[in-house]
Amino acid sequence: VGNVYRMELLPQDIGHLRNLTCLYLDSNNLKEIPAEIGTLSHLERLTLSNNSLSSLPAEMGALQRLHSLHLANNSLTELPVPLCQLRSLTFLDASDNKIDTIPSSIRHLEKLETLLLLFNSLESLPEDICLLRNLHTLWLGNNHLRSLPAAFGELVNLDWGFNYSTCIHVPQDNVQTMSPFFWQHTYTVRAVTLWRQHGPGLDVPAHPEQTPETQLLGAW
């Protein structure tokens, strides 16, 4: 079912479509999703972008076949905890919301490969995000991040491209273990502060596309 526009209310009867695999509800005026959506046990793709959602029903956690979820441009202030029960999820776009909190239970999304969180209000990330070992795309641009988790370097498959951040503080203990993908894209970061207490310096790989805007600052 797809491309239904300017709908303000999703009928509870949606729960009768038990064999539905794809549901496209983007660009409507939805403010809530009925709990009955949790009965769509065969649903694999759900798009809810460009609506007015401020929350999601707990029953969404029952969508165990869902692998692609689009929530961009809504009014979410936190990443809903029920989403962290979606064990088959590989793609999650929650960009352009008002999210300031990522729950520690995000660690349960073990199959997640792409997480888009641009244009939100994040100031930090939970350490548990570092347990998402299949994560290869993480977009965090246009947030208020001031630091990265201490174990961030363990995300060895992570491509840091398309993250336009004004200041990232990298914990001293994992600078050398950061994924090569991170350093290949440091030209998108205006200032990277490398925390260290001692030592002759840090061997940070260069990237041919780095610009003068990129500043690798040895710290105190």
TrEMBL record:
SUPFAM superfamilies found in the cross-reference section: L domain-like
TM spans (from-to): none
Cellular-component GO terms for this entry: cytoplasm
PROSITE patterns in the cross-refs: LRR
Keywords: Leucine-rich repeat, Repeat
The keyword Repeat belongs to this UniProt entry's keyword annotation: yes
Keyword Nucleotide-binding among record annotations: no
Domain Disease resistance R13L4/SHOC-2-like LRR: 36-117
Stated name of the protein: Disease resistance R13L4/SHOC-2-like LRR domain-containing protein
